[in-house]
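Section handout 9: paired folding examples.
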Amino acid sequence: MSNGYCNVQHGGYRTRAECEWPYACWITGSGRYACLAWCRVLTVTLWGSREDALAAKEFIDRTACGGGCHRDHRIVDLNWPHRKFVREGGVL
């Protein structure tokens, strides 16, 4: 699975996320949908379903992702050749 930005064939969504965001403070999970929190430092959680990723984003939108949170949270579908941001009604 190539991310469209490099020539590596990634073995899974976790390795693709590590290639996409090498500067992330941490990456956890193994699913297709990435919930990104760009506040203070970048953190990434991977979810197996779009619904689970959206629920995680909605939770941190309501409660904050940590100190310095300014509500810059996004969902990315890692199955697309180039990053696609996801919203509740579909792909942006």
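Moving on to protein 2 of 2.
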Amino acid sequence: MPYGRGTGALILGIIVAISGFFLYNHVACTVVIGEFCLEPYRPYETVGLLMMIFGGVLFVVSIILLAMGGRTIAVTTTPPPSPTPSKGKYCGNCGTLNPFEASYCNSCGRAFAEGSQ
């Protein structure tokens, strides 16, 4: 692909905006006498204005895409940590890690309940 992402949108935005400009400025006449227009009006004023706005937005979006140069925003996720086997039991009073065989906390001396882990 010789052109960056958004080149087609850039060209389309320019074409739509210029076409909208010409439609917006198109003047028609209801009463013509000779070469003179007595009652001019713009039949495509709203459509032309909307086309200019849409073309401008498309132009800006395409400029942003071209500035990115085909880069994508990568979202990386890290897997959750795998659970590690516990090395003992924690004291409910002070939070110290104690061996499974301990009946009392090694730090604060509080007794563990029977069968606690």
